[in-house]
């Protein structure tokens, strides 16, 4: 090792780590750079590893985790020391919980300063161990290649998961000779190739396979259940063959969707409760019997069900104690079961009672849901936009887009509506139900599957966790369309009960509520992407068509009725509002407002109006006043939105026509009324009545239109000012970007030329034959490129 050698003949720890990752097959790395790993990211890129720079380590970690699932190779996450490592724990733990391969690499403080309160000092091995299959630290530069290969192999062996490699700052700055670096990488690669990462794949499985096939053959109500483990194992062809040859109905877990197409006639997704509640034998492949599958226990499952559990982890088999447990790779095990069944075949006919029961129940439930989906409900519930999105995604054909689903109601309803017909085309919150994964997943899918469009369907709450990564989408120009279901907060905003609205801060917004109708699409526009604000089916269809065709970063901000139920009954918000002002309706039964105190006050006022026989235009005026009073900060969306609904209702339209017909006589009637002699009290009552009658819907509408025109004019002026400033800033940014690109290119050319000169001038006299052959090949390639061959 030589720390004072000339630059042309030495390699530092950052460069060695980058080269080792490239030699091990790493093609992409995600992270946030800073002291002491900035050079490592650039060195890795120079070695052929594309580095995707994020705005937050959590999103980068979720990207690395999803990349491991989509490609089968470990996603690599790079973080700085201390707090950067802590942020990265989100991705590391998420990968391990979901059994996805990931390698997290973090810089750390100088070893000599450990325990002295150094910059961002943290015992990172202790911090990562609870969430990692392997946590190791390089104490010298020579350790780096060996540990890189070891950690990457550990991430994919057995049950996949996260691994951690710590490289202290002093190690990253140590140097060694080029020849020694190449030898260390070659030795690490040779040792890794000699090791068997998955010995369980080669064990004898005959006994378990025979038992599994026999149980399925003798079952009266068999069911095949598969999860993301089967998708990760690329078991789709084997499972599809099993289903087709045996006629057994199947049930995927959320991220198992697409292993067998959702459109397959034996899919039990729409008959889930019947399928798991009455099956007598369940073959569970690559799915754990955890909360997602109700732990495999009654009352959701039959108490007499026999489980055949196929899992790559022996610990999982031991934990669940199934009737038959088979430890092994899902694809290999199902291929062996298919071979066993082929020798003694069986198949459930379409007329089999179990198959008939499943298909009938599924068909009935699908028809019910399609009836709801067929309705164009405006303001949007969840069902209408999801149907439009589903149809647009299906129209893309193959390769199907990767769908990223995140949120509460959005993800739950989307799971039932959105269709997956190809494997590994659905990513969601996963085993932990993690929120914040959305945009990290999108970036991973875009680089792992560049031929596919990526479509994220996000709740506004889920989107908020990683929203700043829209800048990352634009920076790398990734084909990602983010659709935000904007219903003003978690679960749709304020859902507090009366006893929760007390105390000194009772007037604060609810913990679940956000700014109404937030302009999320403008975030994308701020960085140069495309933003859409949609409130109607036609607007959504147009936005989807344009953004899908462009395959550029876009955000579609879909305004959702905050009071829309998860599985909407089909009633519009118009119906619910108008019922609240109809004498025959009990107001307390209308889910019009979540603020119960305010609702009770309005209910009392409505009851008074119902008993007094106040006319329709008075009710409209009072509705306007109610919503205007709720808007002290001039956030006009709420009451204008409500007024638009009210003014277009048939009752209001009819009343306006009546008022128009009576308008020429109104002045005479007023004169007659005012000329009637009365006492002071009577005159006061008469004046109040006249004021009420004058507040017609036309006057209220005129006020609103004038106010809206004023607000729109002000908004337009501000928009023009912003656009002008944005244009000026964009021109400056483009000029700076061009200069930066030129500098980066010059730097890259210089580094490449220097590396090539090092290779051409390397002293091979002391090298082994293998090393000499390697450098000889490299020299020939370099000369061929320079000579244009």
Word description of this protein:
The structure is a single chain. The chain is of the alpha/beta class and 789 residues long. It folds into five domains: 7-197, Rossmann fold (3-Layer(aba) Sandwich); 201-365, Rossmann fold, CATH 3.40.50; 375-559, Thiamin diphosphate (ThDP)-binding fold, Pyr/PP domains (Rossmann fold), CATH 3.40.50.970; 573-670 and 689-695, no CATH class; 723-787, no CATH class. Helix 3 (57-71) runs parallel beside helix 4 and helix 9 (206-218) packs across helix 14. The longest helix is centred in the C-terminal third of the chain and has 64 residues, at 697-760. The chain starts with 9 loop residues before the first strand and ends with a helix. Residues 681-691 have a biased composition (Basic and acidic residues). Catalyzes a carbon-carbon cleavage reaction; cleaves a 2-hydroxy-3-methylacyl-CoA into formyl-CoA and a 2-methyl-branched fatty aldehyde. It catalyses: an (R)-2-hydroxy-long-chain-fatty acyl-CoA = a long-chain fatty aldehyde + formyl-CoA; a 2-hydroxy-3-methyl fatty acyl-CoA = a 2-methyl-branched fatty aldehyde + formyl-CoA.
Q: Which residues sit in consecutive blocks of at least 5 with pLDDT less than 50?
A: 1-7, 199-203, 566-613, 633-638, 665-679
**Main sheet characteristics:** 6 strands, parallel
**Structural Rg:** 33 Å
CATH class of the largest domain: Alpha Beta
Shape verdict: globular
Q: Give me the count of strands.
A: 19
N-to-C CA distance:
37 Å
GO biological process, one term: fatty acid alpha-oxidation
Domain Thiamine pyrophosphate enzyme N-terminal TPP-binding: 17-126
Family: Belongs to the TPP enzyme family.
Cofactor: Mg(2+); thiamine diphosphate
